[in-house]
Protein backbone atom coordinates (compact mmCIF):
# COMPACT_ATOMS: atom_id res chain seq x y z
CA UNK A 1 0.00 0.00 0.00
CA UNK A 2 1.25 3.50 -0.85
CA UNK A 3 2.30 5.89 1.91
CA UNK A 4 -0.51 8.10 3.17
CA UNK A 5 -0.93 11.83 2.82
CA UNK A 6 -4.17 12.68 4.65
CA UNK A 7 -5.99 13.37 1.39
CA UNK A 8 -9.40 12.63 2.95
CA UNK A 9 -8.89 14.29 6.33
CA UNK A 10 -12.18 15.69 7.63
CA UNK A 11 -14.28 13.73 5.13
CA UNK A 12 -16.97 11.17 5.92
CA UNK A 13 -17.32 8.21 3.57
CA UNK A 14 -19.79 5.37 3.17
CA UNK A 15 -18.37 2.24 1.50
CA UNK A 16 -20.90 -0.41 0.51
CA UNK A 17 -19.61 -3.96 0.14
CA UNK A 18 -16.97 -2.92 2.68
CA UNK A 19 -16.86 -6.35 4.27
CA UNK A 20 -14.83 -7.96 1.48
CA UNK A 21 -12.35 -7.51 -1.36
CA UNK A 22 -12.25 -4.12 -3.04
CA UNK A 23 -14.71 -2.50 -0.62
CA UNK A 24 -12.66 -3.62 2.39
CA UNK A 25 -9.38 -2.38 0.82
CA UNK A 26 -11.02 0.95 -0.05
CA UNK A 27 -12.43 1.36 3.48
CA UNK A 28 -8.99 0.72 4.97
CA UNK A 29 -7.14 3.06 2.59
CA UNK A 30 -9.68 5.85 3.04
CA UNK A 31 -9.38 5.57 6.83
CA UNK A 32 -5.57 5.72 6.54
CA UNK A 33 -6.03 8.89 4.48
CA UNK A 34 -8.01 10.47 7.32
CA UNK A 35 -11.63 9.73 6.38
CA UNK A 36 -14.25 8.67 8.90
CA UNK A 37 -15.65 5.55 7.25
CA UNK A 38 -19.00 3.82 7.60
CA UNK A 39 -18.30 0.29 6.40
CA UNK A 40 -21.62 -1.10 5.11
CA UNK A 41 -22.27 -4.68 4.11
CA UNK A 42 -25.08 -7.21 3.92
CA UNK A 43 -22.92 -9.29 6.23
CA UNK A 44 -22.53 -7.01 9.25
CA UNK A 45 -19.96 -9.35 10.84
CA UNK A 46 -17.65 -8.89 7.85
CA UNK A 47 -18.11 -5.10 8.02
CA UNK A 48 -17.08 -5.32 11.70
CA UNK A 49 -13.90 -7.23 10.77
CA UNK A 50 -12.92 -4.44 8.36
CA UNK A 51 -13.65 -1.85 11.05
CA UNK A 52 -11.52 -3.75 13.60
CA UNK A 53 -8.58 -3.60 11.17
CA UNK A 54 -9.11 0.15 10.71
CA UNK A 55 -9.30 0.79 14.47
CA UNK A 56 -6.10 -1.24 15.02
CA UNK A 57 -4.35 1.14 12.60
CA UNK A 58 -5.67 4.17 14.52
CA UNK A 59 -8.41 5.06 12.02
CA UNK A 60 -12.04 6.04 12.58
CA UNK A 61 -14.83 3.75 11.35
CA UNK A 62 -18.18 2.20 12.21
CA UNK A 63 -19.75 -0.94 10.77
CA UNK A 64 -23.34 -0.96 9.48
CA UNK A 65 -25.33 -3.98 8.35
CA UNK A 66 -27.54 -3.10 5.37
CA UNK A 67 -28.95 -4.68 2.25
CA UNK A 68 -28.47 -2.04 -0.45
CA UNK A 69 -31.29 -3.49 -2.53
CA UNK A 70 -33.69 -2.31 0.20
CA UNK A 71 -34.23 1.46 0.01
CA UNK A 72 -35.38 1.75 3.63
CA UNK A 73 -32.17 0.12 4.89
CA UNK A 74 -30.10 2.46 2.71
CA UNK A 75 -31.98 5.47 4.08
CA UNK A 76 -31.09 4.25 7.60
CA UNK A 77 -27.45 3.73 6.57
CA UNK A 78 -27.11 7.30 5.27
CA UNK A 79 -28.91 8.71 8.33
CA UNK A 80 -26.51 6.73 10.58
CA UNK A 81 -23.45 8.18 8.79
CA UNK A 82 -24.77 11.75 9.03
CA UNK A 83 -25.83 11.32 12.67
CA UNK A 84 -22.51 9.73 13.69
CA UNK A 85 -20.06 11.96 11.84
CA UNK A 86 -22.08 15.12 11.11
CA UNK A 87 -22.32 14.91 7.30
CA UNK A 88 -21.49 12.87 4.23
CA UNK A 89 -18.87 13.69 1.60
CA UNK A 90 -17.93 10.45 -0.17
CA UNK A 91 -19.96 7.47 -1.34
CA UNK A 92 -18.31 4.28 -2.66
CA UNK A 93 -20.57 1.60 -4.13
CA UNK A 94 -18.96 -1.86 -4.26
CA UNK A 95 -21.80 -4.12 -3.07
CA UNK A 96 -22.39 -6.91 -5.57
CA UNK A 97 -24.62 -9.96 -5.47
CA UNK A 98 -22.18 -12.83 -6.03
CA UNK A 99 -24.81 -15.35 -4.85
CA UNK A 100 -26.46 -15.59 -8.27
CA UNK A 101 -23.31 -16.19 -10.36
CA UNK A 102 -23.95 -19.88 -11.02
CA UNK A 103 -27.54 -19.13 -12.11
CA UNK A 104 -26.72 -16.13 -14.34
CA UNK A 105 -26.36 -18.17 -17.52
CA UNK A 106 -27.40 -18.06 -21.16
CA UNK A 107 -30.43 -15.77 -21.48
CA UNK A 108 -32.76 -18.32 -23.07
CA UNK A 109 -31.98 -20.91 -20.38
CA UNK A 110 -31.83 -18.94 -17.11
CA UNK A 111 -34.54 -18.08 -14.59
CA UNK A 112 -35.48 -14.41 -15.04
CA UNK A 113 -35.70 -14.04 -11.23
CA UNK A 114 -31.88 -13.95 -11.31
CA UNK A 115 -32.09 -10.63 -13.18
CA UNK A 116 -34.10 -8.98 -10.39
CA UNK A 117 -31.65 -10.25 -7.76
CA UNK A 118 -28.53 -9.10 -9.66
CA UNK A 119 -29.90 -5.72 -10.74
CA UNK A 120 -31.51 -5.24 -7.31
CA UNK A 121 -28.07 -5.09 -5.67
CA UNK A 122 -25.56 -4.04 -8.33
CA UNK A 123 -27.72 -1.36 -9.99
CA UNK A 124 -30.49 -0.41 -7.55
CA UNK A 125 -28.01 -0.39 -4.66
CA UNK A 126 -26.23 2.48 -6.47
CA UNK A 127 -29.57 4.22 -7.12
CA UNK A 128 -30.70 3.92 -3.49
CA UNK A 129 -27.42 5.16 -2.01
CA UNK A 130 -27.16 8.08 -4.47
CA UNK A 131 -30.79 9.09 -3.85
CA UNK A 132 -30.27 9.34 -0.09
CA UNK A 133 -26.65 10.57 -0.05
CA UNK A 134 -26.89 13.41 -2.57
CA UNK A 135 -29.17 15.72 -0.50
CA UNK A 136 -26.59 15.64 2.32
CA UNK A 137 -23.73 16.31 -0.11
CA UNK A 138 -25.64 19.24 -1.62
CA UNK A 139 -26.24 20.64 1.87
CA UNK A 140 -22.48 20.99 2.42
CA UNK A 141 -21.56 22.16 -1.08
CA UNK A 142 -20.58 18.92 -2.77
CA UNK A 143 -19.27 15.41 -2.65
CA UNK A 144 -17.91 12.51 -4.65
CA UNK A 145 -19.58 9.24 -5.66
CA UNK A 146 -17.81 6.24 -7.18
CA UNK A 147 -19.74 3.27 -8.55
CA UNK A 148 -18.26 -0.15 -9.36
CA UNK A 149 -18.82 -1.19 -12.93
CA UNK A 150 -16.79 -3.87 -14.77
CA UNK A 151 -15.11 -4.67 -18.08
CA UNK A 152 -18.06 -7.06 -18.38
CA UNK A 153 -20.22 -4.01 -19.18
CA UNK A 154 -18.71 -3.88 -22.67
CA UNK A 155 -16.69 -7.11 -23.06
CA UNK A 156 -19.00 -10.11 -22.95
CA UNK A 157 -17.99 -13.01 -20.71
CA UNK A 158 -20.37 -15.32 -22.62
CA UNK A 159 -22.94 -15.97 -19.88
CA UNK A 160 -23.43 -13.71 -16.82
CA UNK A 161 -25.89 -11.51 -18.80
CA UNK A 162 -27.60 -10.03 -15.73
CA UNK A 163 -24.22 -9.08 -14.22
CA UNK A 164 -23.03 -7.50 -17.48
CA UNK A 165 -26.29 -5.62 -17.91
CA UNK A 166 -26.27 -4.34 -14.34
CA UNK A 167 -22.72 -3.04 -14.78
CA UNK A 168 -23.58 -1.39 -18.13
CA UNK A 169 -26.57 0.29 -16.48
CA UNK A 170 -24.29 1.56 -13.70
CA UNK A 171 -22.33 3.47 -16.36
CA UNK A 172 -25.56 5.11 -17.59
CA UNK A 173 -26.49 5.98 -14.02
CA UNK A 174 -23.00 7.38 -13.37
CA UNK A 175 -23.08 9.69 -16.40
CA UNK A 176 -26.61 10.86 -15.57
CA UNK A 177 -25.76 11.63 -11.94
CA UNK A 178 -22.62 13.45 -13.08
CA UNK A 179 -24.72 15.63 -15.38
CA UNK A 180 -27.60 16.20 -12.97
CA UNK A 181 -25.50 17.22 -9.94
CA UNK A 182 -22.06 18.22 -11.30
CA UNK A 183 -22.86 21.95 -11.38
CA UNK A 184 -23.83 21.72 -7.72
CA UNK A 185 -20.49 20.16 -6.76
CA UNK A 186 -21.34 16.46 -6.62
CA UNK A 187 -19.09 14.43 -8.92
CA UNK A 188 -19.95 10.87 -9.94
CA UNK A 189 -17.49 8.49 -11.60
CA UNK A 190 -17.19 4.75 -12.07
CA UNK A 191 -14.34 2.29 -11.76
CA UNK A 192 -14.18 -0.71 -14.07
CA UNK A 193 -11.87 -3.33 -12.61
CA UNK A 194 -10.54 -6.09 -14.82
CA UNK A 195 -9.68 -9.32 -13.04
CA UNK A 196 -8.91 -8.48 -9.41
CA UNK A 197 -8.05 -11.29 -7.01
CA UNK A 198 -10.64 -11.07 -4.22
CA UNK A 199 -12.49 -13.61 -2.04
CA UNK A 200 -15.28 -13.58 -4.63
CA UNK A 201 -13.10 -14.18 -7.72
CA UNK A 202 -11.00 -16.81 -5.92
CA UNK A 203 -14.20 -18.83 -5.50
CA UNK A 204 -15.46 -18.05 -9.00
CA UNK A 205 -12.41 -19.07 -11.08
CA UNK A 206 -10.31 -22.25 -11.09
CA UNK A 207 -6.49 -22.08 -10.94
CA UNK A 208 -6.44 -22.82 -14.67
CA UNK A 209 -8.84 -19.95 -15.42
CA UNK A 210 -6.81 -17.62 -13.17
CA UNK A 211 -3.71 -18.51 -15.21
CA UNK A 212 -5.65 -17.55 -18.37
CA UNK A 213 -6.47 -14.19 -16.73
CA UNK A 214 -2.75 -13.68 -16.02
CA UNK A 215 -1.91 -14.49 -19.66
CA UNK A 216 -4.34 -11.74 -20.73
CA UNK A 217 -3.02 -9.02 -18.41
CA UNK A 218 -0.39 -6.72 -19.90
CA UNK A 219 1.27 -6.51 -16.51
CA UNK A 220 3.63 -8.82 -14.59
CA UNK A 221 0.91 -9.77 -12.07
CA UNK A 222 -2.82 -10.02 -11.48
CA UNK A 223 -4.75 -7.11 -9.98
CA UNK A 224 -5.25 -6.68 -6.24
CA UNK A 225 -8.04 -4.90 -4.32
CA UNK A 226 -5.49 -2.20 -3.37
CA UNK A 227 -5.02 -1.36 -7.07
CA UNK A 228 -8.70 -0.40 -7.26
CA UNK A 229 -8.66 1.32 -3.86
CA UNK A 230 -5.86 3.64 -5.02
CA UNK A 231 -7.88 4.68 -8.09
CA UNK A 232 -10.90 5.18 -5.83
CA UNK A 233 -8.81 7.41 -3.55
CA UNK A 234 -7.88 9.60 -6.51
CA UNK A 235 -11.55 9.89 -7.55
CA UNK A 236 -12.66 10.71 -4.00
CA UNK A 237 -9.92 13.29 -3.39
CA UNK A 238 -9.79 16.95 -4.53
CA UNK A 239 -7.00 15.95 -6.99
CA UNK A 240 -9.75 14.75 -9.36
CA UNK A 241 -12.03 17.77 -8.87
CA UNK A 242 -12.44 18.30 -12.66
CA UNK A 243 -13.12 14.63 -13.44
CA UNK A 244 -16.83 13.86 -13.60
CA UNK A 245 -18.94 11.21 -15.35
CA UNK A 246 -15.96 9.05 -16.34
CA UNK A 247 -15.17 5.37 -16.21
CA UNK A 248 -11.63 4.63 -14.99
CA UNK A 249 -10.47 1.19 -16.11
CA UNK A 250 -8.18 -0.64 -13.64
CA UNK A 251 -7.33 -3.82 -15.52
CA UNK A 252 -3.56 -4.00 -16.05
CA UNK A 253 -4.11 -3.50 -19.77
CA UNK A 254 -6.45 -6.46 -20.21
CA UNK A 255 -8.79 -4.47 -22.46
CA UNK A 256 -6.05 -2.58 -24.32
CA UNK A 257 -5.22 -4.95 -27.14
CA UNK A 258 -6.97 -6.30 -30.24
CA UNK A 259 -8.54 -9.78 -29.81
CA UNK A 260 -6.16 -11.42 -32.31
CA UNK A 261 -2.96 -10.54 -30.37
CA UNK A 262 -2.77 -13.78 -28.29
CA UNK A 263 -3.18 -15.84 -31.47
CA UNK A 264 -0.48 -13.80 -33.26
CA UNK A 265 1.83 -14.35 -30.26
CA UNK A 266 1.19 -18.10 -30.34
CA UNK A 267 1.82 -18.25 -34.10
CA UNK A 268 5.08 -16.30 -33.65
CA UNK A 269 6.16 -18.67 -30.85
CA UNK A 270 5.34 -21.75 -33.00
CA UNK A 271 7.24 -20.50 -36.07
N1 LIG B 1 -12.96 -8.57 -8.28
C1 LIG B 1 -13.04 -8.36 -9.58
O1 LIG B 1 -12.31 -8.97 -10.38
C2 LIG B 1 -14.03 -7.37 -10.12
C3 LIG B 1 -14.05 -7.15 -11.51
C4 LIG B 1 -14.96 -6.24 -12.03
C5 LIG B 1 -15.85 -5.58 -11.20
N2 LIG B 1 -15.82 -5.82 -9.85
C6 LIG B 1 -16.81 -5.12 -9.02
O2 LIG B 1 -16.17 -4.53 -7.90
C7 LIG B 1 -17.03 -4.62 -6.75
C8 LIG B 1 -16.30 -5.34 -5.62
O3 LIG B 1 -15.88 -6.62 -6.08
P1 LIG B 1 -15.20 -7.68 -5.09
O4 LIG B 1 -14.53 -8.69 -5.94
O5 LIG B 1 -14.45 -6.99 -4.02
O6 LIG B 1 -16.53 -8.37 -4.49
P2 LIG B 1 -16.79 -9.20 -3.17
O7 LIG B 1 -17.82 -10.22 -3.50
O8 LIG B 1 -15.50 -9.65 -2.53
O9 LIG B 1 -17.46 -8.10 -2.21
C9 LIG B 1 -18.78 -7.67 -2.42
C10 LIG B 1 -19.38 -7.36 -1.07
O10 LIG B 1 -20.74 -6.95 -1.30
C11 LIG B 1 -21.52 -7.45 -0.23
N3 LIG B 1 -22.92 -7.51 -0.61
C12 LIG B 1 -23.53 -8.45 -1.39
N4 LIG B 1 -24.84 -8.19 -1.50
C13 LIG B 1 -25.07 -7.07 -0.77
C14 LIG B 1 -26.23 -6.32 -0.47
N5 LIG B 1 -27.43 -6.68 -0.95
N6 LIG B 1 -26.11 -5.23 0.32
C15 LIG B 1 -24.90 -4.87 0.83
N7 LIG B 1 -23.76 -5.55 0.60
C16 LIG B 1 -23.85 -6.63 -0.19
C17 LIG B 1 -20.93 -8.83 0.05
O11 LIG B 1 -21.31 -9.30 1.34
C18 LIG B 1 -19.44 -8.56 -0.10
O12 LIG B 1 -18.87 -8.22 1.15
C19 LIG B 1 -18.29 -5.35 -7.23
O13 LIG B 1 -19.28 -4.41 -7.56
C20 LIG B 1 -17.83 -6.10 -8.45
O14 LIG B 1 -18.87 -6.36 -9.36
C21 LIG B 1 -14.94 -6.70 -9.30
TrEMBL record:
Keywords: Oxidoreductase. Pfam families: adh_short_C2 (PF13561). InterPro entries: NAD(P)-bd_dom_sf (IPR036291), Sc_DH/Rdtase_CS (IPR020904), SDR_fam (IPR002347). It comes from the Bacteria. SUPFAM superfamilies: NAD(P)-binding Rossmann-fold domains. Transmembrane segments: none annotated. PANTHER family: DEHYDROGENASES, SHORT CHAIN, ESTRADIOL 17-BETA-DEHYDROGENASE 8-RELATED. Belongs to the short-chain dehydrogenases/reductases (SDR) family. This is Glucose 1-dehydrogenase.
Amino acid sequence: MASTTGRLTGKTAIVTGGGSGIGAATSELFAKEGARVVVADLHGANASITVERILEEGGTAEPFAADVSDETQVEELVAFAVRTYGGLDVLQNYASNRGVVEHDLFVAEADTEVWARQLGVDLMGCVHTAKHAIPHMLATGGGSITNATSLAAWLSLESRPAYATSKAAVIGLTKTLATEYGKKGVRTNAIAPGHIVSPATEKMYSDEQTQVMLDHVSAPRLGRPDDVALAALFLASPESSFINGQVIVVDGGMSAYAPMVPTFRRLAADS
